[in-house]
Specification:
The protein is an alpha/beta fold. The protein folds into two domains: 199 residues, Rossmann fold (3-Layer(aba) Sandwich), CATH 3.40.50; 179 residues, Glycogen Phosphorylase B (Rossmann fold). It has 15 helices and 15 strands. Helix 2 crosses helix 15.
Length: 396
């Protein structure tokens, strides 16, 4: 059987406890399915296809995913566990995949590994990136379980160098099995699928225009960014606009803060923006800001780069590895609002020169050009192929 035929017939399963807010996966899974047509995505939370990707890959909903909080955090991810259906075992035995990509160290990952001798499949653990709460370094039980899972997995992939360091140094996983390359990457076309629904007049806003997009929750650090805006106001600097796109539990509180601190002219609240509309906002703003307090990756950083925007990025985002100080943006500690204000102020003052922002944006686009859904799918295909050939070395 030739290689082309093998790819055509090879069954691959992807296990995602949830694909809520996971629209960025759709272009990647679309490209992956072109390589391996016998691919099925299993999930416990399916919000539907992104516009333009309807039925581009096969989806099977298994039970219902819920997240059970054990400890709520005001600075990062909540601690807890993912509750998913055990019916995935029967679905996998029925589907009979040769390779399973399974998200994180969930119950579905455990079941995939336990059934591995029976199903005779290979298991690839998908660990998007490292962060303090997600790593659970303070839990001996979780650490031991993860070490065992990593040992019996055929391969592990992660977006970031920090993720690779966690897997290899903290979990002591065989380095030959761990591969770090961005696979959660943007598709500019997917972000522009609903441009006809955008009727915002960007010319009404003072420039430069900064954009924040994401959930309006404590973890995303918007409160700290608005504190920086207050500092700018106290300095008498108001010739800029911050667009806030998103919804969440903190919105009312932070809108009230803006009213109290007289920031209404500088800060504009857009509400929720559909995925297919985001590209229009990225296209017309000048700079993107991600002040997150904890993010294992931060896809919005790559999305902004794909549209040629400089990025002001928290050092606590996994994607901060793609920001080079002064070249395509700036890194900062989100807890230091004064320093955020300094960075904003410098860009506002230099906006009349404009070439500084444009040059950084061009650098962003240059850096992200190699990270496309097609490139990600090829990387994932190499991982798939490698698990089918024992002892084969690849991706050096």
């Amino acid at each position: 059987m030739n290689a082309k035929l093998e790819k055509k017939d090879l069954r691959v399963a992807w296990l995602f406890p949830s694909l809520a807010l996971g629209n960025y996966w759709h272009p990647i899974l679309d490209e992956f399915t072109k390589i391996y047509p016998q691919t099925t995505v299993f999930t416990g939370n399916w919000p539907g296809f992104s516009p333009g990707f309807e039925d581009s890959f096969n989806v099977k909903v298994v039970g219902k995913m819920t997240f059970v909080d054990t400890t709520r955090s005001q600075t990062g991810y909540n601690k807890g566990f993912i509750n998913v259906s055990g019916a995935i075992a029967g679905e996998l035995l029925k589907f009979r995949p040769k390779v399973i990509f399974t998200s994180g160290f969930s119950v579905w990952t455990i079941l995939s590994l336990l059934l591995k001798p029976l199903g005779r499949w290979r298991v690839v653990i998908v660990y998007d990136g490292s962060s303090p709460i997600v790593d659970y370094r303070d839990s001996k039980v979780r650490t031991i379980l993860r070490q065992i899972m990593s040992r019996f997995a055929n391969a592990l992939i992660t977006n970031s160098i920090a993720g690779k360091d966690y897997l290899t140094e903290f979990l002591d996983t065989d380095r030959q099995k761990v591969f770090a390359q961005p696979y959660q990457v943007p598709d500019a076309k997917a972000l522009l699928k609903q441009t006809e629904r955008v009727d915002l007049d960007f010319s009404q806003f003072p420039r430069p225009i900064f954009l924040f997009t994401g959930q309006i929750i404590p973890r995303k650090g918007l409160e700290q960014l608005l504190q920086a805006c207050k500092i700018l106001c106290d300095r008498g600097c108001s010739n800029y606009t911050l667009l806030v796109a998103g919804e969440g539990e903190q919105r009312q509180e932070l809108e009230t803060f803006c009213q109290t601190e007289r920031l209404e002219d500088c800060v504009q609240w857009l509400g929720w923006i559909d995925y297919g509309q985001l590209g229009t906002y990225f296209r017309y703003v000048d700079v993107f800001v991600l002040p997150t307090l904890e993010d294992v990756w931060g896809m919005v950083v790559l999305e902004a780069m794909a549209f040629g925007k400089p990025v002001l990025c928290s050092k606590f985002a996994g994607a901060s590895e793609l920001i080079f100080e002064g070249e395509n943006g700036y890194l900062f500690d989100p807890h230091q609002s004064e320093k955020i204000a300094d960075i904003l102020h410098s860009l506002i003052d230099s906006y009349s020169q404009n070439n500084i922002i444009v040059k950084m944006g061009d650098k962003s686009q240059e850096l992200i050009a190699q990270h496309t859904p097609i490139a990600a799918a090829k990387f994932l295909a190499k991982v798939t192929d490698s698990t089918m050939v024992r002892g084969k070395s690849f991706l050096h």
